[in-house]
Amino acid sequence: MNTNKNEKFNATTESGENKTTVFLSGELDLSVAPDFRLVMEPLVGNSDLDLFINLKDLKYIDSTGIGILLSILKARHGMNARFVVDEVPPQIQKLFDMTGIAKFFAPSENSQ
Amino acid sequence: MNSEVQRVVITLPASADFVDIVRLNLYGIASKMGFSYEEIEDMKVAVSEACNNSVLYAYGQEGGMVEVSFEVNNNQLSISVKDEGASFEGTTRSGNSVTLHDKELNDVEIGGLGFYLMEALMDDVTIQNQSGRGTQVIMKKRLMKSEETV
C-alpha cells in the first residue's frame, strides 16, 4: 500500500517558453516548508511567466503548505499574474474544499 | 475481544522533523484497528496539525518534548498530543478556528486553519490549556464497522 511510504518532499521545476511548472511530490509539511518557499520565491515574483503547480504526486499537505499556496495566490493576484494549481489528488482537494481555499483555485481561463 | 483500553505512547522532540514519525505510528495503529484509507488520511492531517502547534508555539529556542499517546478502545481511537510549553495567552494557539469560505482573497489570513482542520476531521476535539503546564489536545475518531462478524 502506498500510504505507508514515508516519501520525502521534492519540487522539480520545468520551464517552458512562457510558463513555469513546479511538480511537487512526497509530503509537504512544516519540516519542508522552508525548502518549498525557497523554490517558489524567485518564480512567484516573475509576472512575465504563468506559474503552474502540479500536485499529481503530492501525498500529503498540512496547513503550513496550504498557507504557502495561499500566500503565492495573494502575491500573484496582486501582480495580476497567472497562477494555476493542477492535478490535485482527491485527498488534498478535500482539504482545499474544507478550508475554503478551493474557490481561489477555481479554473479561471481568462485570468491572463 | 476485551474492552480494555490499550495505550501506545511515544515521546518526541518538539521539532518539525519528527512529525512524520507521528504520522507513521498513527498509520500503523489506525490501519491495524481497521480504519479506512480515507479515515486514516483525515487523522494524519488532524494529528499533524496538533503536533505542528506544539512544535511552533510550545517552546522557545531551547526546545522540548511532545508526548503523543494513542488509546485504542474497541471502536474508538483517542489521540492525545501534549507539550509542556509555556502556554501563554492562548490567543495564538487555541485561537479561533477559521476558514476562508466567506472571505475575499485580500482578506484571508493563514492562522487558524490548523485548528479548523482538527475539528473538521475528527469526531471530537478537546484542547486543554493550563498556564505554565502546557497544552494537551485530545482527538477522537470512532470506528464505523461495516457489518463485520463479531
Spatial gap, N to C terminus of chain B = 9 Å
Just name the CATH architecture of chain A: 2-Layer Sandwich
Q: Kindly state the number of beta strands of chain B.
A: 5
Average of the residue pLDDT scores of chain A: 89
Strand content of chain A: 25-35%
Spans of chain A of at least 5 consecutive residues whose pLDDT stays below 50 are none
User: Domains counted in the coordinates of chain A: how many?
Assistant: 1
CATH level-3 fold name of chain A: Transcription Regulator spoIIAA
CATH class of chain A: Alpha Beta
State the total count of DSSP E strands of chain A: 4
Tally of domains of chain B: 1
What is the chain-wise order of helices and strands of chain A? EEHEHEHH
Main β-sheet description of chain B: 5 strands, antiparallel
**Secondary-structure element sequence of chain B?**
EHHEEHEE
CATH class of chain B: Alpha Beta
Approximately what portion of the residues of chain B adopt beta-strand conformation?
25-35%
- Tell the overall outline of chain B: globular
Proportion of residues in helical segments of chain B:
25-40%
Structural class of chain B: alpha+beta
Protein name (chain A): Anti-sigma factor antagonist
Family (chain A): Belongs to the anti-sigma-factor antagonist family.
Organism (chain A): Paenibacillus pini JCM 16418
Domain STAS (chain A): 9-112
SSE blueprint:
The complex is a heterodimer of chains A (112) and B (150).
Chain A: E1 10-15, E2 19-28, H1 33-44, E3 50-61, H2 63-79, E4 83-86, H3 90-99, H4 102-105
Parallel strand pairs in A: 2-3, 3-4
Antiparallel strand pairs in A: 1-2
Helix pairs in contact in A: 1-2
Chain B: E1 6-13, H1 19-33, H2 37-57, E2 65-72, E3 76-83, H3 113-121, E4 124-130, E5 134-142
Antiparallel strand pairs in B: 1-2, 2-3, 3-5, 4-5
